[in-house]
Fold these 4 entries.
Entry 1:
Amino acid sequence: MSNKRNSFFSVATYYPVWAGINPDEVLSSQSNAFGYFAAVNLVMNKYNGMVPSTFVDWTGQQWDAPNTWPPHQYIILEALNALPSNLTANALPTPGAGQSAYDLIPSGQLNLTESQLPGQLLHGAQALQNVTATGPGSDINTLNGMVVNGGNSSSGEGWASMLGRELACHWRFNTRLTPMASQQRTQPHKQC
C-alpha cells in the first residue's frame, strides 16, 4: 500500500464526509468546503444528468462516464447535508466572465483539463460531445444564474443546500424520463 491519493476523480471522494469523516482541509474554510464539492456544481451546470461514477470517458465499463448509480447520488446528498452550516451558508460561487463551472474546481482535483471531460450526450450529428466543450458555452444548463431542472431557489439558500436541491431535482427529472421511473417510489425534493 502506498497511501497515495488516486490520480482520478470518482464519487468515492464523498464517502468520507457521508460517513462523518470530515477532512481537516475541507473544514478549514468555506472556499475549501465548496472546492471539495465543485465537481458536483460542474455536473449540474455542464450535463443533463447526474454525477457520473468517474469522469473517465466512454470506456463502456459500468463505473465510467456517463454511467451513474442512485446510491452515489444519495451519498453526495448526504455528504452535502453533513457539512457544518458555518461552511455552507454562503452563496454558491459563480465563474468569472468568460469562464465556466470548470474554473471553480481546485487545480488537480479532476486530473483532467476541461476539454478532456466527457461530452454531453446529444442526438444527431453531435452525439457524444458537448455543444461547446470549454468555456462559458459548455455550461449548457445554466440559465440566468439557475440550473435548468434544478428546482426553485429559496432566499438565503447556502451553496450546499442549492447543490443538494439541484442534484435531487435533476435526479427526479431524469428518472421521469426512463421506463423504470414509474416503478420508483421516491419523495421529491420539497422545491422541485
Entry 2:
Amino acid sequence: MAVEAADAATTGMALADTEINWDRLDKTRFHVIGAILFTVQSALIHPTAVVKTRMQVAGSGISQMNGLSVFRHIIRSDGIPGVFRGFGTSAIGSMPGRVLALTSLEVAKDMTLKYTKGLNMPEASRIGVANGVAGMVSNLASCAYFVPLDVICQRLMVQGLPGTTTCNGPFDVVQKVSKAEGFRGLYRGFGLTAITQTPASALWWGAYGSAQHIIWRSLGYSDDMETKPSHVELVTVQATAGMVAGACSSVITTPIDTVKTRLQVIDDYGVGRPSIMKTVKSLVKEDGWRGFYRGFGPRFVNMSFYGTTMIVTYELIKRLSVKQA
C-alpha cells in the first residue's frame, strides 16, 4: 500500500521535485509515518549493531573472531533474543529523538538551500553543502538526547562480558550508572560523540546529496527535461547514494566509534573514572593499533546497509507526507 502511494506520488514527478523540502511536508504525517517505518528499519539492522558492540568491548577471544562467528556465538549462547538485546529500549526511546533530529535536519537544509541559491557554485556542491550543514545541525541538536540512550542500549547489549556491570533492564542501568557516577555517567563519551560525530554526520549527508546529484546527471537527467525518472530509478539512485555515503563514513569513523563504545560501557579500568586516554591505552595494550578497527566488518555492513535502508525509508516517508493539493 505504501509503495503504491509512493508510485502515485512519483508519477509525473520532475527531477527537480525529487528533492522534497520542509515546506512541502505535512508535518504530522511525516513524524507518524517516520516513527513506524524507522522502527522497522532499526529492527533489520539491530543485530549487526549488537555484534559490532560486542566485538569492540569484549576481550581478545571475541574481538579476534569475525563478525559471522560472533553472531553464531551469540545465537548459541543466548538464542535469537541475544541479537536483539537493547532493541526495545532503543526503538521506544528513539522516537522523541527522531522528531528532534528529522525536524532540525529538514529545517537546516531548507534554510541553507535558500541562502546559497544566489551563489556562484556548482549545483552538486550547493546540494552537498546544504545536506552537510543539515547533518551537522541535526547531530548537534540530537546528541544531548541520544548519548544517554546509547549508553543504556549498549550496556544492555554487552551483558555478561568482563568489565561490564550486570543490569536488569534500562531503568536498572540508569539507576546503577547514576548511583556510581551521578547524572554525568549517562553522558560518558558525550564530548567525543559531539566533536567527532558532528563532522561525520556532515560528511554522510554531504556525500549523499552530492552523490545523488552526480548519479542523476550521469544518467542524463536534468531539471528541465521532460523525461521523468521512474519509481524504480528513483529508489535505486537514492539507495546507491546512501550506500556510498554509509561506506565512506564507516571507514573514517570506526576507530572513534570503538573508543566511544568502550568508554560508555566498560567500568573496570582500575582506579578513577574511565577516560578517553585510559580507554585508548587499554585498547592498544590488548590488540595494538589494529584494535581501533575492532568490529569494522559488522560496522561496515551496518553503516552501508543503514545508509541504504535509512535513506530509502526516509525519502519514502517524505513522498508519502507531501501536502495534498
Entry 3:
Amino acid sequence: MGADYYKILKVSRTSGEEELKRSYKKLAMRWHPDKHPSGTQQVAEAKFKQICEAYDVLSDPTKRQIYDLYGEDALKYDVSSPSATASRRRHGGPRDADDIFDDFLNGFGNDGDYNEINHKINKDDNVHGGKGNSRKSSGTTTNNNNNNNNINNNNDSNKKSKAAAIENKLGCSLEELYKGSKRKMVISRIVPDESGKPSTVEEVLAIDIKPGWKRGTKITFPEKGNQEPGLLPGDLIFVIDEKPHATFKRDGNDLIFNKKISLVEALTGKTLNLTTLDGRNLTIEVSDVVKPGHEVVISGEGMPISKGPKTKGNLRIKFDVKFPSRLSVDQKADIKRALTRSS
C-alpha cells in the first residue's frame, strides 16, 4: 500500500537500472524546484521529493525487494513508543531529495549529461528572478550574487511554517492495548495538485499499537495532514482512546474487576473463574471472610507496562457484598447461634 513508486517514475515493474536512470533524469529535471517560479515552487518541490524518494528505493536492490514484497510501509514507518512520531529509519530511508539528486549527478562525473543538467537548472534560476539560491547542486552551493549574507537570508526566507496539526481519536479495546495490535488506516487529506488547486487524496497508514499504551498516547505522522497554500503539510496525530470493557476497568497499569457476592459467599468462601484479556482461564479461590471494602490483589495479572513489556500491573478484585433484604425469625436464630459458637 502507499505510494506507487513505479507509477511515480513512469516505469514498469520489470524496468532495469538504465531505464530507471533515464526516467528519473527526465522527471527530476522537469520538477526540480529551482526551475519553477515562486508561485508553483511549492508544488514542484513536493513532486521532486516524491520522484527522488521513488528513485532512491527502486535503484537500491534491497529496498526495492522489500518494497515489492511489503509496500512502502515496510520502509517508511516505525512508531515504536507512546511518544514516538512516525520516524523513517528502517533500511536507512528515505534520504533527503537533494542528496539523492547530488549522488545521481556525481555518478555522471564530468560528462555531457552532468553539464547538461546543471546548465539547465542554473539557466532557469536566472529566468525566475536571478535570486541567490542555496539549494545543493552536485555538492556545491550556487549563488548569483556571490554573497554569503544573501545565502543566509534566502535560507531564512525559504523556511516554511506547517499547517495546523490534525488530531483524531483512535478507539482501542482493552484486548488491543493488552496484546498489541496493527491497524491499517485509510486517510483522506487535502493537498494542492500540479496546478496548485486543492485536491483530495487517499493514503493508507500503518499503525503499530504497542502493549500497555494508555489513553492519551499520541502517534504522529509528520506532514500527513492537510496542506494549505504557502505552508508545509500539517502533521496527522492519532490519540489513543480506551473503549469500555464488559468485565474489566483500567486504573493505570492495574485492572479492576468488580464482583458482587452474597453474604453467604462472603462468609463461607467463593471460587471465581475469570477469562483474561489474552484468553486464559484464571481460577481464584477466595477463602477468607470478605469484609466491606475487601480487595484481593493478583500480582502480575494487570496491564503490560509499555516501558517494560515483560512486567505487568496487578489485577484487583473488589467485592460488593449483597445483604438479604429480610430474614425470617428462624434464619436470624440460626445465624445467631452459628456466629455465637464461632466467637
Entry 4:
Amino acid sequence: MMDLRSTLLRSTLPLSFSCDSFIEKSACRASPRTAASFLGIAAGKRSCCCVRAMAMAKRNPGNSNSSSGNGDRSVPNGDASKGHDTPKSKPHRITLDSWREYRATLWAREQAETAVPEHEGALLDHKSLGQKWAHPITLPEPGSVLIATETLDKCEMFGRTVIFLLSDGTKNPQDQPTGIVINRPLHRKIKHMKPSHLDLAATFADSALNIGGPLLESSICLFSPGDDRKFTGFEEVIPGLCYGTKQSLDEAVMLVKKGVAKPQDFKFFRGFAGWGRDQLKQELDKNYWHVAACSANLIFGEYNESSEGLWEEILQLMGGQYAELSRKPKLDM
C-alpha cells in the first residue's frame, strides 16, 4: 500500500500555509481567554472516566485489559480465565471502535451524574449513547476533531470550522498533523468542475465538493465502506472511515464499477490543513481549538447532506460550556 501520510507530508513542505502561520498572516490572532483552559477541564473529566474504567476492570478482570486511549488500533487481549473448564472460550478483543464508544459512554454517564447529584457514585447503566455523540478529550488523536473557538471567529479561513484529524503527527518523527475541514461545502458538484479524469467525472458526477483546507497541493477523499475491510490506496483513520489522496481516485472508480462500493460512500475535499512540528500544540495553547471525539456519522454525514451546521451540532452534543458557545453570535470580522 502506498504511504498516504508521506504523500501528504511531501505536499505540506514547506508549510508556508499551515494552520498557525495562515492565522498569523491573516492577522486573526487573539489573546487567550483568562478562564481555565480547555485542556485542564478535559484532563479532569478524562481522569475521572479512567478511574471508572479501572474500577470496572477490577470488578471484571477476565474481560479485557485496559486501554491508554492513545490511539492504538486495538487493546491487547486479556489473559484467558484460569481454573475454569472453558477451553473453547476466547478472550474478548476490544477494538478501537468499541473503546471509542466505551469512553463516550463513560463521559455520558458522568454528565448524567453531574446533572443529578442525588445519584452521585452510581453508574447509571441505563444511560446509553445515541446514534450521534461527541465529547471533549484532552489531546488530539487520529480521528478526533478540532472545533474552532471564538478566538478564530475573525479568521475567514478557519472561523467556526470543524477539522477531522487524519494524523496527529505522533506516528513517527517525520509525521506531522494533517486534517480536513469537514463543514465547508463548496456548493458545487464534480460534474460542474469539468475534471480531466473522465472516469471520475462519469462515476461521481453528482458528488458534492467540499473545501478541505488552504493547502491545495493535494485533494482528499473520505471513504466509508460500512465495515472493517481494508482497501488498497486507502488508509483507515477510525473503524469504518478511511481516506485517500489523488492517487486513490482510480481505485475509488474501480470499487464503484465493481459494485463493491457506491458513489455515496465517498466524499471529496479540495485541499487540506497541515501543521509543522509543535504548531498544533501552540495553537491549542493559544485556545484556537477545542478537541473532541465524536461518532463517525457526524464526520461523514449523509450523502450530499449539508455540513454547514456541524460546528453547532457537535458543540451542542458536548453540552455545558460548549453548548453555550454554539449559541453565541459570531464575532464580526
